[in-house]
Please model this.
Amino acid sequence: MTAPLTAARSNPLGRLLARFPNAPWSSVAETVARIGYVARGSVYLAVGAVALLAALGLTPHARGALGALEAWGEWPAGVIFLWLIGLGLYGFAGWRALQSIFDVDRQGATAKGLAARAGQAVSGLVYGGLAISVFGLLHAVHHLEQHSKHAAMARTVEKVLTFPFGNMLVILAGLFVLASGVGNIVRAVFSHFGRTLDCDPHIARWAGTVARIGYFARGIALAPVGIFMARAGWHARAVEAHGIGGALEALHRQPMGGLLLSLTALGLMAFGVFAFLEAIFRPIRAAAIQHGD
Model:
């Protein structure tokens, strides 16, 4: 028996796919993953664009992911686009599952590798939840219903607060989001994003700079979300919880808020651009699932 097939026996999904050796599973998984990166980038471009319009006084409020996507449902082509974004986000969530569970990026079982895979698992859950919300938005648009997105975070926190030790769960979730925001800022300073891309060195350097700007802005947007959530758990008041949209609005209310929101908005758009670059240049090692190499 060859080494790849032997290795595949330790991979349940690999054993299943090995039953169909002529099926292009790796090509399908790679295509889905790349579409997922495009969907991820589209979401951040939308959030950044709406935030920039809010900073310039051209729209009333900055919004989170679902709020930024909602406007697209008001024109026929936008509904089709939302369908594609929703399906793409499901694909990205599936790719995150392959990264975290089956370690297709070969990060290993070290403390650092397990931490990275745990982060990918959480990311998959977040984007899967966003995909569900996008299709909920499509349902609301189709039936001319009011889709209440502004209170979604508060409703979720309010429900969790009814659980035993619910306030502690909310506080821990807030601290996790805060840590994620800080982690994004740390990555913006120390990570070498261009090294993850298979492209010309000049493009890799340019992409790395775009990624640093994007991750820093994403951290700036996420950190207040965690603080708001932790405060909501501490005070047992769901109304104090806010999503990305609320965090950007809070940033806008600070001294020189227009400038701060504009820079953050441009950074979030940079994060979206980097996601598009990942869709094009990132190596997708989906074949490792089937062959175990």
Q: What stands out?
A: The chain has twelve helices and no strands. Residues 1-9, 146-150 have pLDDT under 50 and may be disordered. Residues 3-291 form one domain. The radius of gyration is 20 Å.
